[in-house]
Amino acid sequence: MSDTFAEIAQRPVDPLFEGISVIDVDTHYSEPHDLWTSRAPAALKDRVPQVKVVDAETGQKSWFIDGDKSIGFGATAVSTIRPDGTRSRGIDFINWTIDDVHPASWHVKERVKAMDAVNVHAQILYPNVLGFGGQEGAKVDPDLRLASVEIYNDAMADMQDESGQRIFPMMMLPWWDPHLAVAEIERMAKRGLRGVNINTDPHTHPGLPDLADPHWDPMWAACQDHELPINFHIGASSASIDWVGEMPWPSQDMPMRHALGGVMLFFGNGRVMANLIVSGVLDRFPKLQFVSVESGIGWIPFLLEALDYQVMDGQPDNKLKMLPSEYFSRNFHGCFWFEKRNLATSVRAVGVDRVMFETDFPHPTCVFPESADFVKSGLAELSWNERNQILSLNARQLYKITV
Question: Is residue 3 domain-resident?
Answer without folding.
Answer: no
